[in-house]
Amino acid sequence: MKNWIQAARLRTLPLSVSGIIVGSFYAMHQGFFDGLIFSLAILTTLGLQILSNFANDYGDGVKGTDNETRIGPDRAIQSGAISVKQMKNGIILTSALTFLIAVLLIYISFGKENFFYTLLFLVLGVASIVAALKYTIGNSAYGYRGLGDVFVFLFFGLLSVLGSNFLYAKEFDWLLVLPACAVGLLSTGVLNLNNMRDEISDRTSNKNTLVVKIGGKKAKTYHFTILILAMLSLLTFSLLKDFKAEQFLFVLGFIPLFLHLKRIATYQDPKEYDPELKVVALSTFLISVLLSISLLL
Fold first, then answer.
1. In contact, 202 and 212? CB cutoff 8 Å
2. Rounded to an integer, what distance in angstroms lies between the CA atom of residue 271 and that of residue 274?
3. End-to-end alpha-carbon separation of the chain, Å?
4. CA angle 8-9-12, nearest 5°?
5. What predicted TM-score, i.e. pTM, was given to this entire model?
6. CA dihedral 261, 262, 268, 273 (to 10 degrees)
7. How many Cα atoms are found within 13 Å in the side-chain-facing hemisphere of 215?
């Protein structure tokens, strides 16, 4: 059990639910909310994140990407804590459970009356599972072709925030695109940090992440750009929503991000990036919670 908990990478879970929190509390701000939908949406997202972590462990493990040159904690297959066959079975079980929870979520949200929405979200649910699996698994794994950033932005940002909000409201509020982009950009920042840390081992293993493609120096500039854009997106959203002074509570979450960027500017050793992953992930979660509170003030 301890090995499976470690393979689930608990430190990634707060980041995964950040978009659900924003989309759901915006629905509460709109006058739409359902505790059951919120609970099932959280469980679905956690299932997808754990599935993604298992699949990443499996894909990088069987391809030899996770090896002795890699910086960071040992992975389950790499260390031998979980066999390839066991991990494959774990992936199948997690996929099935996540899909069942997602189907229940969609049924509770739309029932029989909204067939088109039900069908659309079933397709999105299947796409989310496939995306979680195909990041590192298979010859066409998109994480090995520098497309991981795009998928993280789409699924952790746009789909997570806008999709979860639609489950309640049954309509789009296009102003919500701004916080959705912010969550997506911050989530992409976590992935970029991970890839900056692993640049050397990824390069030798032919894992052509965006960092490998553009190089560490440009990746650092890219990192600054996406985090600053995320903060600007949230500020623009708050101004368009005519936030009162006390509703700018979420800006407190920018403080650890600014301190993070100050440290990143001085780092030269890839090992130094590893603890910063937690900083950006937890900062994203904090900002999401504070923004949700701000919407209710």
1. yes
2. 6
3. 42
4. 120
5. 0.93
6. -40
7. 2
| Amino acid residing at 40 | L
Closest listed residue to residue 106, CA positions, set 168, 13, 199, 21: 168
**E strand or H helix that includes residue 210:** helix 210-214
The identity of residue 159, as a single letter, is: L
What whole-number distance in Å separates Cα of residue 153 and Cα of residue 183? 8
Q: What is the mean pLDDT of each run of 10 residues along the chain (297 residues)?
A: 84 92 96 95 95 86 66 72 89 95 95 88 94 85 89 94 96 94 96 92 88 93 97 97 94 96 93 92 96 94
Q: The CATH number of 2-296 is which of 2.60.120, 1.10.600, 1.25.40, 3.90.320?
A: 1.10.600
Assess contact for 71 and 196: CB atoms under 8 A: no
Helix orientation angle between 115-134 and 35-63, rounded to the nearest 10 degrees: 30
Q: Which residue has the tokens 């789009």?
A: 172
Q: What angle do CA 13, 17, 22 make, to 5 degrees?
A: 155
Reading the block at residue 86, the tokens are: 């066991």
- Contact yes or no for 106/118 (Cβ under 8 A): yes
The amino acid sitting at 100 is L
- Residue ranges per structural domain of the chain: 2-296
Q: Within 13 A of 42's CA, how many CA atoms are on the CB side? A: 13
